[in-house]
Amino acid sequence: MRRLLTLAVAAAASLLGLAPVANAAPEHHCDSTGTAFTYVVLYPPGAPRFVAEAELRHDCGSLVEYYPEIGVAVATSASPDFADRLGPNRAYSGRKDVPVSALESVAPADDLGGQQWDMDLIKAKQANKVDEGSHRVLVGVLDSGVDATHPEFAKAIDPADSAGCVTGKADPSPGAWAPTTIPHGTHVAGTIAAADDGNGVTGIAPNVRLASVKVVSDDGFIFPESAVCGFMWAGRHHFTVTNNSYFVDPGFYFCRNQPGDAAAYEAVRRAVAFSTGRGVLNVAAAGNEAMDIANPTKDTVRTHPVDRTCATLPAGLPDVVSVTAVGYAGTKSGYSDWGKVDVTAPGGDRAQVPPTGAGPACPLSTLPGGGYGSMCGTSMASPHAVGVVALLASTHPWASPAQLRALLRAEATPVPCPAVATCTGPPADNSYYGHGLVNALAAVTR
C-alpha cells in the first residue's frame, strides 16, 4: 500500500508540473535547527491535497491548511532553504522577511451621535431614517477581531460565520476571532453596524450582520496566509461584503516579477478572486503613506525595487474597491494615499479640526470592553464605504459584486480636485477621490 501511495504521488506531481516527489517522507536530511516560519505555497488550482502534503514533507515542511479551489497551501518549516527547494516564485513567508493608529479614548455618554460628524458628511443619519439595512446582509470584518460582548453588537455579531485566520487555517472557536491586544477591528465594526439604540454611537447599517474574521496577529501583522484564509472563509460562507483596513505584511508593495513577492501576490490574488466569484465584494483601505499608489517608486516599509508591476495587497488588486480618506472639511487627509481609487470616505485628519461639540478630528466608534474612542486613517474610511455597500446590498438584494461596486461609484458625490499637480481627473473620477464621497442616503433612496 505504501508503494502505491508513493507512486501515485510521484505521478500526480509530474502531471501537475511540480518538483519530483520520490516518496512521502524526506529522502534527505532536514535542518530543523532554524526558526519555524509559515509560508504560502502555490499549486495548480484543483491539485489534490495529498500531492501538496507529500511534496511539503519531502522538502522539510508540514501542511497547515490547503485550499484546493485556488491551489494555495499554508505550510510551516524550520528548514532555512525550504522556499528555495520549492522555488522562490512558489513559496513565500512574510514573517521571515519582517526587517496601529493612534487612539484617543472618549468617556462613555448616553448618546455620542452629535459627535459623529463623519456620519453627517456621508448622510448616514438621514439614511438611517429610511432604511437601516437588512439582517440577511452579512459583512465580514477582516481585522484584529471584534468584541462581541460590546453592547453595540448585541444583535450584530454572527458567531457561526466568524473565525480566526491568523495561522492560515480557519478556527471558528470564539477565542480565535475575539480581539486580544488590538482594538482596531472593534472600531471598524462600530462604524459599519453599531446599534441605533440611543446610546454611544450608531453605525451606517445597524441592522446588518457582522462576522469577525481575525487576520491580524497580536503583534499587529497580517501575513499572506492570514489574508488568504480570510478571503477563502468569506467566499465559502457567502459574505456580502468584506472590510479590509490593512495591507499585507511585511512590506507595503508586493511585486509580481520578484522572487517570493510573486508567490504571495498570486496567492492573495487567487483568494480574492475566489471570494468575488462566490458573490463577495471586497473593500480595502488605500493606505496611509501619502503616496501615489498608481505609480509606486519606493516601499516605505521594506527595501526592495518597486515599479508599476507592484501593488499593495489587497487594495491594489483589480477585484477590490479601494478607498481614500477625507477629514472634517471634506478634503483629502494629509496621510492618505491616492492614485487608482474607487471612492473616498471620512477617515479624519488632525489638521481638519471640527468646531467645538462636533466631535474629535478622528471618527468616533466602538472599542473593546464597551468603550468608545477615535482613530484616524484610511482604515476608518474603508468601513464607511462598506457600510454604504451594505445598504446598497439591502436595497438591491440581487446585485452582484460588480453591480454593487458600480452602484457605489455611481451614487457617490463627486469631489473636484484641489489646485495641486498630484490630483488629476474630473470631479466624478479623479486620483484623490475616485468617483466621489460615498453617499448613504443615495444608497437607500435611489
Report a brief summary of the structure:
The protein is an alpha/beta fold and 446 residues long. The chain has helices spanning 2-15, 49-58, 82-86, 117-121, 124-130, 174-177, 184-193, 224-236, 261-277, 378-395, 401-410, 440-445, and strands spanning 37-42, 62-67, 72-77, 91-92, 104-106, 138-143, 163-164, 209-214, 241-244, 254-255, 281-285, 310-311, 320-326, 343-346, 364-367, 371-374. It is built from twelve helices and 16 strands.
What is the topology?
Blueprint: H1 2-15, E1 37-42, H2 49-58, E2 62-67, E3 72-77, H3 82-86, E4 91-92, E5 104-106, H4 117-121, H5 124-130, E6 138-143, E7 163-164, H6 174-177, H7 184-193, E8 209-214, H8 224-236, E9 241-244, E10 254-255, H9 261-277, E11 281-285, E12 310-311, E13 320-326, E14 343-346, E15 364-367, E16 371-374, H10 378-395, H11 401-410, H12 440-445
Parallel strand pairs: 6-8, 6-9, 7-8, 9-11, 11-13, 13-14
Antiparallel strand pairs: 1-3, 1-4, 2-3, 5-16, 10-12, 15-16
Pfam families: Peptidase_S8
Signal peptide: 1-24
Domain Peptidase S8/S53: 136-436
